[in-house]
């Protein structure tokens, strides 16, 4: 059992708590930290642990083996470095950083300390997504040609804070929604080589954003995000022999040349819990973690190039 301190219990942090508490046999929350001390104590009470407003409390707590960070992303790297210095493993919500050098600083601190770093790109743990990766890895779909996805909804339209701060979300939904797809695509077909981003201010700043990508393997890609529409998610991969389309959290359609389209249904998975439990397994040495450290750095490099592209109006190298 991995003892964790939950750091940051805003809406997303509380969702992580709900995914883990009394549901995980691998992770136990033993401390809660939030800049709002009253909120930290409120969340900690039903967990039977302490709550406070100081990260230093978690760093000094000998019972805490790892930090789970659900804090604004501009705080992530310094918190990862502090955790590593205190001998704590760290799981950090996405994005780790918006700049490659900052992500590298976090990774270097973890590597020097011999600790584990986890990253909250939970879509890697969806059952249909895992099956698409298998189909690609085993060549069932042939040569990867094009990947496309759009994650749009209005869940954040009325939310204040970093998600609408141009300094923290310079490409709007591509930071806090589309980054899941950017990570997923790079995991599936390898690193991105260039990215071209457009943003629009239709009803509010950066409420629509899209990116065209070219990957080092030669495949192309598209990622879109709209933050003020009804919920809509689309994810599809095209290969030289066929395509795979995720149509719902547990549904995958596969069309191969010369064959009828087939539909696969999967049991639902709590991808948040699955990711953090995979992190716990890696800490315990039971299994490798699904993210390589260099992949985490590359994720940040893609977001950095996306920011440059949105400003320059042209494709930018990653």
Count helical runs: 10
What oligomeric state is this?
Answer: single chain
Average pLDDT level: 96
User: Structural class, judged by helices and strands?
Assistant: alpha/beta
Strand order of the largest sheet: 14-13-12-11-7-10-9-8-15
pLDDT < 50 stretches: none
Helix share of residues?
Answer: 25-40%
Estimate the global geometry from the Cα principal axes: globular
Distance between the termini: 39 Å
**Beta strand count:** 15
Portion in beta strands: 25-35%
What is the chain-wise order of helices and strands? EHEHEHEHEHEHEHHEEEEEEEHHE
Tell me the major beta sheet: 9 strands, mixed
Provide the gyration radius in Å. 19 Å
How would you describe this structure to a colleague?
It contains ten helices and 15 strands. The radius of gyration is 19 Å and the shape is globular. The chain is 34% helix and 27% strand. By secondary structure, it is of the alpha/beta class. The model has no long low-confidence stretch (mean pLDDT 96).
Features:
single chain; 318 residues; alpha/beta; nine-stranded mixed sheet; six-stranded parallel sheet; globular
Short note summarizing the structure:
This protein is α/β, with parallel strands linked by helices. Helices cover 34% and strands 27% of the residues.
């Amino acid at each position: 059992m991995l003892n964790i301190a939950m750091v940051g219990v805003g809406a997303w942090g509380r969702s992580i708590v709900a995914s883990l508490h009394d549901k995980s046999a691998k992770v136990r929350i033993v401390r809660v930290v939030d800049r709002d001390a009253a909120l930290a104590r409120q969340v900690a009470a039903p967990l039977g642990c302490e709550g406070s407003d100081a990260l230093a409390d978690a760093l000094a707590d000998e019972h805490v083996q790892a930090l789970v960070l659900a804090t604004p992303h501009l705080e992530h790297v310094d918190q990862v470095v502090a955790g590593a210095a205190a001998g704590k493993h760290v799981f950090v919500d996405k994005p780790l950083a918006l700049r490659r050098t900052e992500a590298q600083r976090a990774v270097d601190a973890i590597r020097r300390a011999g600790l584990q770093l986890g990253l909250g790109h939970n879509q890697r743990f969806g059952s249909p997504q895992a099956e698409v990766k298998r189909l690609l890895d085993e060549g069932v779909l042939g040569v990867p040609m094009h990947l496309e996805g759009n994650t749009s909804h209005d869940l954040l339209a009325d939310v204040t804070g970093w998600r609408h701060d141009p300094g923290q979300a310079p490409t709007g939904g591509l930071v806090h929604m589309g980054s899941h797809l950017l990570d997923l695509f790079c995991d599936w077909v390898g690193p991105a080589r260039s990215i071209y981003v457009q943003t629009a201010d239709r009803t509010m700043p950066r409420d629509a954003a899209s990116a065209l990508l070219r990957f080092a393997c030669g495949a192309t890609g598209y990622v879109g995000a709209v933050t003020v529409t009804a919920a809509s998610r689309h994810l599809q991969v095209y290969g030289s022999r066929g395509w795979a389309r995720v149509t719902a959290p547990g549904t995958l359609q596969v069309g191969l040349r010369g064959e009828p389209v087939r539909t696969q249904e999967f049991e639902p998975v709590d991808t948040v819990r699955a990711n953090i439990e995979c992190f716990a397994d890696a800490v315990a040495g039971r299994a490798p973690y699904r993210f390589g450290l260099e992949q985490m750095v590359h994720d940040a490099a893609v977001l950095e190039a996306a920011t440059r592209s949105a400003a320059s109006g042209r494709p930018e190298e990653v």
